[in-house]
Design goal:
By secondary structure, this protein is mainly α. The protein contains five helices and no strands.
Length: 120
């Protein structure tokens, strides 16, 4: 048996195992209890826009409820913008605008590096 045949056999065994697990889940009603049962898969979650080498790591983070650092910076910018809109003190406004500019620059540099290298 050559390497390609062995690979095909392993894949068939894996397919059989996955099929058995799905049949068992269906028999117990576990599949029907899932919130996504009978609904189309949500694919508009940025998957296509994410660099290929970061898709799986980001999916793992998302499934674990952890946001990427870039998203956290975006949230910080939004909070600072809200604070800026709520303040009337000119000195505080200048300080907040400076912090927002720094955060935006930091975010832009991280995103640019991700676009070019796929890693940070």
């Amino acid at each position: 048996m050559n390497a390609e045949d062995k690979r095909a056999q392993r894949l068939q065994l894996l397919d059989d195992h996955i099929g058995q697990a799905l049949r068992a889940s269906e028999a117990t009603g576990e599949l029907r209890a899932a919130p996504s049962w009978g609904k189309p898969l949500a694919v508009a979650d940025g998957w296509d826009e994410t660099p290929v080498e970061l898709r799986q790591p980001y999916k793992i983070l998302k499934d674990a409820g952890v946001v990427p650092p870039e998203v956290e910076v975006m949230r910080e910018i939004t909070a600072l913008e809200r604070e800026l809109a709520a303040t009337t003190d000119a000195a505080m406004q200048r300080a907040l605008m400076q912090r927002i500019a720094e955060k935006r620059q930091h975010l832009a540099l991280r995103l640019e590096k991700l676009r070019h290298s796929g890693s940070l």
